[in-house]
């Protein structure tokens, strides 16, 4: 399951001022969680666009209650890559930013398009989209499915047990059929629970694989 | 702003000073030729790439995603 965000912001500065400021953003009073910043790739394309890749490390601030669950993650900072294309001829800039570690816990991706504001050409607008996904959602779905399947098979056993004991109390020797039926029910319940566990494992595995694939799509 | 490699912060600062000037005065004004910062960039990169390897940061081989085309529009 992916959470999607779409937003728009306006900066009351011209596009060239914004694009220049983009490279000088850090540090600022609001970026205390940003620990390091480096350009790790840069090139000017034949059609005069600037491609850059910036590596950021950020402090991994999570709520206290997650620390016990994700002990391994607490220690490490989050590594983030920001790829960008500056197109001065069209006065636009596109950025794509994504986290590259702690992937099992959560992946955040963001795409921004910067361009001249439609209302005022001395302003700049930013169209921002983000996708937040976690393979833990797959795990919680799997746990729910397993729980439900096990509950259903227990209901079957309960009812069969009732029928059996009622038959006994009413002086009927539980017919061979009933005993066999009870045994069958037990077998069937075991199969259902096994199938549910397999399905649950598969769901969780799929969710984790999808996460990995999304990150390595183009490798 | 610190570099991920403690030894690289000064080189980064020098390169950035050169880049920021070229970016605003030349590149954005349509003159993308003749990048005067290539030597400074090389020095800085040698240092930072080494730091990245030492810290085992997994950025090797990741395809460029700056065009923002690998996510469909308005997708949830």
From TrEMBL, chain B:
Keywords assigned by UniProt, alphabetized: Disulfide bond
Record field: transmembrane: none
Pfam families noted in UniProt: UPF0203 (PF05254)
Key word Zinc present: no
A single cellular component GO annotation: mitochondrial intermembrane space
Gene Ontology molecular function: phosphatidic acid transfer activity
Signal peptide: none
UniProt entry tagged with the keyword Disulfide bond: yes
Family, similarity comment: Belongs to the TRIAP1/MDM35 family.
Identification of the protein by name: TP53-regulated inhibitor of apoptosis 1
């Amino acid at each position: 399951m992916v959470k999607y965000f779409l937003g728009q912001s306006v900066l009351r500065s011209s596009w060239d001022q914004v694009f220049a400021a983009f490279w000088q953003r850090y540090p600022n009073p609001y970026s205390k969680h940003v620990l390091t910043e480096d350009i790790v790739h840069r090139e000017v394309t034949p059609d005069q666009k600037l491609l850059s890749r910036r590596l950021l490390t950020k402090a991994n601030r999570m709520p206290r209650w997650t620390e016990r669950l994700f002990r391994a993650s607490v220690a490490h900072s989050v590594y983030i890559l920001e790829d960008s294309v500056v197109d001065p001829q069209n006065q636009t800039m596109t950025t794509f930013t994504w986290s590259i570690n702690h992937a099992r816990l959560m992946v955040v991706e963001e795409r921004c398009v910067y361009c001249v504001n439609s209302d005022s050409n001395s302003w700049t607008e930013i169209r921002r989209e983000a996708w937040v996904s976690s393979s833990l959602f797959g795990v919680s779905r799997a746990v729910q499915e397993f729980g439900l399947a096990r509950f259903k098979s227990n209901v079957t056993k309960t009812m069969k047990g009732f029928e059996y004991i009622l038959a006994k109390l009413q002086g009927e020797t539980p017919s061979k059929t009933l005993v066999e039926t009870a045994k069958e029910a037990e077998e069937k319940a075991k199969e259902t629970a096994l199938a549910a566990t397999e399905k649950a494992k598969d769901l969780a595995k799929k969710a984790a694989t999808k996460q990995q694939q999304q990150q390595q799509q183009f490798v | 702003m610190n570099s991920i490699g403690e030894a690289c912060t000064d080189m980064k600062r020098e390169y950035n000073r050169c880049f920021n000037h070229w970016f605003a005065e030349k590149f954005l004004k349509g003159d993308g030729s003749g990048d005067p910062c290539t030597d400074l960039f090389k020095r800085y990169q040698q240092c930072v790439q080494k730091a990245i390897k030492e810290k085992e940061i997994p950025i090797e081989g990741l395809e460029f995603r700056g065009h923002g085309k690998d996510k469909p529009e308005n997708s949830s």
